[in-house]
Amino acid sequence: xxxxxxxxxxxxxxxxxxxxxxxxxxxxxxxxxxxxxxxxxxxxxxxxxxxxxxxxxxxxxxxxxxxxxxxxxxxxxxxxxxxxxxxxxxxxxxxxxxxxxxxxxxxxxxxxxxxxxxxxxxxxxxxxxxxxxxxxxxxxxxxxxxxxxxxxxxxxxxxxxxxxxxxxxxxxxxxxxxxxxxxxxxxxxxxxxxxxxxxxxxxxxxxxxxxxxxxxxxxxxxxxxxxxxxxxxxxxxxxxxxxxxxxxxxxxxxxxxxxxxxxxxxxxxxxxxxxxxxxxxxxxxxxxxxxxxxxxxxxxxxxxxxxxxxxxxxxxxxxxxxxxxxxxxxxxxxxxxxxxxxxxxxxxxxxxxxxxxxxxxxxxxxxxxxxxxxxxxxxxxxxxxxxxxxxxxxxxxxxxxxxxxxxxxxxxxxxxxxxxxxxxxxxxxxxxxxxxxxxxxxxxxxxxxxxxxxxxxxxxxxxxxxxxxxxxxxxxxxxxxxxxxxxxxxxxxxxxxxxxxxxxxxxxxxxxxxxxxxxxxxxxxxxxxxxxxxxxxxxxxxxxxxxxxxxxxxxxxxxxxxxxxxxxxxxxxxxxxxxxxxxxxxxxxxxxxxxxxxxxxxxxxxxxxxxxxxxxxxxxxxxxxxxxxxxxxxxxxxxxxxxxxxxxxxxxxxxxxxxxxxxxxxxxxxxxxxxxxxxxxxxxxxxxxxxxxxxxxxxxxxxxxxxxxxxxxxxxxxxxxxxxxxxxxxxxxxxxxxxxxxxx
Length: 744
Known about the structure:
This protein has 744 residues and is an alpha+beta fold.
């Protein structure tokens, strides 16, 4: 018998067993082309039709001529192009097009919308938000029927419990506005995120009294009679068996994804330690569910019919659980991948994990191509792919035998290896989207994942036993509370370690270089080409270093920069290498956003902080060398002098330029102290009196640039007048909450 592969011969990489992966390699470029290439939708549709007719013609020719087992080159090419252009057209339409007679024409108006709650409401400490499929608009005494989507936020005044549920038919009254873009450079863009869900406008609702239910919820039979009762039972069991508090919120989060906001300190702890993935429903939950199904139906799999019954039952349970958890990308991916693996076992065929992962991605993207651009989709795929490819290389093949201590050691090492593989794969994606990399993540994930897994092991039997006996289920509930508390405490302990995370925000070329280096290292490791492996790693590290060194040149810091923090505004003034902060938002977490903006614009770490609106208690805690609090009138720095002539007035003077910050036009004076090159002026009313005050002062001071900042309660009439006033006077600009002021 001839050996298929000689000993020592390197393993070859072949895509033949991975048809779904080959298909995915055509789907992804198509989606990216549709989103980023500036071609009209008509062009994509035309070339897609040409590719389809060419494909059909090639298939017809092959059928008539009865050629060999391999398709024609033109058939293969037209098939690939058809897939590419189809996804390009679909993603272009979903990302860039809105209904012609939709809600965009009603922006800026107060109206009533009638429709269906299309997503599961997300409840936070300030209110509840959901996406609504609108069917009718009541505005100006008219009723208009249309089809569009809107993002709704209902303020709840501290009451986090909401009576809004998925599928409800409601009428909502409020103000319709465009969704704002990113507040600052490089931050989360709500407008882009909303467009990925085909939403262009948002409606702010003052409270629950502005929402009225009408008619029965619109749910299909599967949702009404199966999904909703199961979801209600899970939440009711959690509320009955687990006391209120952070443990209940964590338990609800890991089971169904329907969690209230944990305290900000805990969210920050999970983020710093790189363990935030346990707060969302993911493959771990699906894996434990499948394990429970597998154990329960083991005796049923002895016959062919039993295996099929077991497979169909498992798929049904996965389908129900996916709907209960909101059909997030991670759960859909895990459910589809698991169904493919179980299906291969039922058919008696070998399945490949990477092909199953690719098949789940293709099916997800088939229903919503824009899922490709969501951080959750990319993070779950990078983590799972990395585990599938790297974990077998980390663990020895002869892993059996030995005593209990050796078995425990292997279990601990396997958990560490899985965590290491996932971190290697997902770290660049996290850094790209969130600008942070957890140094403590490898160690923190071991106890946090362990205790969260034990939490799931306690919650699942708790739900099952509660069907029979609430008293018996309470014992599992007590265990769940213990493991939830251990999970939370572990995250807090590791988050307090010095230098637990560092700021790192790579761009797309750097992420691509990282994965190219990782793939080449894996390729040469598989072929056992150790010299080429070392060369590829060193070459990749050099490319990353020199790219960052040559391309990421530190920008020249601007003289004046504003940082938008919602209603609050932070002003950065930089002269002679010294950086001054005026205000710091309303919470300690705002300082992280401020420092990120300082790094993006090339500013050095702030040397001083001056109070204007921010409370003294917060300003005094900022990690800067000098603090100027509300009662202080003067602060002298080597490059500038900061003066407070009166309440809510600041004057910063340097040799090169000067800045004046004033709250209210009534505080303006025609004196030398109120003259400056650049001015920030808060405006709370804009009647004829305020217009005259500003006009008279402008004629005297003649600043190079004056930024008018509308107050929170400035009426729409006054705001429109303020914009007209600024347009008529050169050098005036009205501050926008979604655009930064940058003065060089």
